[in-house]
Amino acid sequence: MPSPTRIHVTSKLCKTLDVGLRRTLFGGNMMAWMDEAASIFAHRHTGEELMVTLKFGEIRFVRPVKEGHIVDFYVDNVKVGRTSISFDIEGWTDDNLVVKTSVVFVSVDEHMRPKIIAKFNH
To answer: The domain 8-107 belongs to what CATH superfamily?
Structure first.
């Protein structure tokens, strides 16, 4: 079960169109779900309008996700820098860890140049 320090971000339902022949979620779909969940967290936590994915760490697929499972995404170990935010993200179905990685997002201006995160850098 996720630790109490983790923050729930969002959930996704694994549907028929998300799975392959073995009735398990395609890895690429999981990666897209994690990027979306991470983006939601980065935007909400920093209050910045424009945040882009800089990097994902090694993605560990721990258990398969089957059609009908609900995946809950949690973040932990949040670090906010001058222009970026990094954190760990995990996906869980019930009490089972199914995927985990780390991620870094960068705040950018309208020209896609790094921008100071105002909320944390006074």
So the answer is: Hotdog Thioesterase (3.10.129.10)
